[in-house]
Amino acid sequence: MNLLSIGGSDPSSGAGIQSDVKSFETLGAYGLTVITAITGQNTTRFGMVEPVSKKILKNQLESVLTDFKIDGIKIGMVFNSEIIKILYQQLEKLKIPIVIDPVIKSTTGGLLIESKAIQDFQKFIIPLATIITPNKFEAEILSKSKIKSKLAIERIAKNIQKKGAKNVVITGIEDKNNKMSDFVLEEKAKYWITGEKINSANHGSGCDYSAAILFAISNKKSIQESVKFAKEHTRNSIKNASKVGKGIKITATHSKDERNLELTKSISEFTKIKDIYKNIPECQTNFVYSKKNPKSTKDVLGLAGRIVKAGTEVIIAGNLTYGGSKHVATALLTVNEKFPEIHSAINLKYKDSTISKIKKSKLTVSSYDRTQEPKNIKGKGSTVEWGIKSAIKNSKTPPDMIFHKGDFGKEPMIILFGQTPKNILKKISKISG
Question: For the segment 362-387, what is each residue's pLDDT rounded down to a tens digit?
Answer without folding.
Answer: 889 999 998 887 876 665 556 899 99
